[in-house]
Design a protein that fits this description.
The chain has 383 residues and is an alpha+beta fold. It has 10 helices and 19 strands. Helix 1 runs antiparallel to helix 5. Its EC number is 6.1.1.15.
Length: 383
């Protein structure tokens, strides 16, 4: 029965792809490293990619997606603007070493995927192809009975520019989407924004205060009788083998999806790594007074004063922290999780945060892969 459902879905997908002039292919799953080196994604795609070697030691992968391979085919077969535009697709088994498979059918390591690619002569052509695919996706989801929300999203490892995700609301979903019922704003949590008022304490000199065995935001807040919003949450991450301090307000959470768009693939530092870096245990650390380390802070901390932060000494915190005076910030950016009820950036009305399952994703990749792979063509002027 399950296979019958799958084949029916594939039939609908094929019908809608045929309707917009998208031609079907079936490409190899095995892909040589050389092709991925040309796009730069052999190293940057991350641990999701399965790697292997053949008996001659040649490195290959189980392609988690096929931008490189389709673009190589285009480079070898499309040589004139007269052959454009083209839209190609396949329905194929994909393999990804997902870190957290869920519910038996979400984020599994082997799955079917329809991936389509357009090749266009200019940005106007790209916009048209994108629009055709978007409309086809909406028709597919309507025909299979799915109520989808279209949200702005991050292109992630795919690269490129504008992109949108098609989401189905579900409590078991592994994505979060932020939407505004008033104006229609909708985005994946990884890029979502909200309006937040900055909070400062009383401006004062930097002082050290004892906070015996008080390491969490709640414990320090209660002990010093300071609101959590006036604390700095200082976290240490490791990116490209380098330590990075990541700062958000005490009542906020770091969104690791947003963080990775800033510093690349990263992981939280281990307790021993934090101790070696700062001389203190987690809960008592901050970049105050530290040099030669990258510091990334959320916009909500920019220009704030009179805050509390770890003193890099067990059982002590700094009070009276002035962010611009006492911390060398390399970059202020959006790295916090948007919370329900926060004001919308567009209309100032309360936002809603919901769990959802991603069922489709479309990108405007631009020349990201055609330049890397060398897919060129002669235009009307012969150049």
């Amino acid at each position: 029965m399950g296979w019958k459902v799958l084949t029916n879905i594939m039939k609908i997908v094929r019908e809608e792809m045929d309707e917009i002039g998208c031609f079907e292919f079936l490409l190899p799953t095995l892909s040589p490293r050389e092709l991925w080196d040309r796009s730069g994604r052999w190293e940057t795609f991350g641990a999701d990619m399965f790697h292997l070697k053949d008996r001659r030691g040649r490195e290959m992968c189980l392609a988690p997606t096929h931008e490189e391979v389709f673009t190589e085919i285009a480079a070898n077969n499309i040589h004139s603007y007269r052959n454009l535009p083209q839209m190609w697709y396949q329905i194929q088994t994909k393999f990804r070493d997902e870190i957290r498979p869920r519910s038996g059918v979400l984020r599994v390591r082997q799955f079917f995927m329809k991936d389509a690619y357009s090749f266009d002569a200019d940005s106007d052509g790209l916009d048209k192809s994108y629009s055709l695919q978007r409309k086809a996706y909406l028709k597919i989801f309507s025909r299979v009975g799915l109520d989808v929300k279209v949200v702005r999203a991050s292109s992630g490892a795919m690269g490129g520019g504008d992109c949108e995700e098609f989401m189905v609301l579900s409590d078991s979903g592994d994505d979060e989407i932020v939407n505004c019922p008033s104006c229609g704003y909708a985005a994946n949590q990884e890029i979502a924004q909200s309006r937040v008022e900055k909070v400062s304490g009383t401006k004062s000199e930097l002082k050290k205060a004892p906070t015996p065995e008080k390491r969490t935001i709640d414990e320090v807040s209660q002990f010093l009788d300071v609101e959590p919003s006036k604390l700095i949450k200082s976290l240490v991450y490791v990116a490209d083998r380098k330590n990075v301090f990541v700062l958000v307000r005490g009542d906020h959470q770091v969104d690791e999806g947003k963080l990775e768009t800033v510093i690349g693939e990263c992981r939280p530092a281990e307790p021993e790594e934090v101790k070696n870096l700062t001389g203190a245990q987690i809960g008592f650390v901050s970049p105050v007074g530290m040099g030669n380390i990258t510091v990334i802070a959320d916009y909500a901390l920019e220009g704030t004063t009179g805050l509390v932060a770890g003193a890099n000494e067990d059982d002590y915190h700094f009070i009276g922290v002035d962010v611009e005076r006492d911390i060398k910030i390399d970059r202020f950016t959006s790295i916090r999780t948007v919370q329900s009820g926060e004001p919308c950036m567009k209309c100032n009305m309360p936002l809603e945060v919901s769990r959802a399952i991603e069922v489709g994703h479309i990108f405007k990749l631009g020349t990201r892969y055609s330049e890397a792979i060398g897919a060129n063509f002669l235009d009307e002027n012969g150049s």
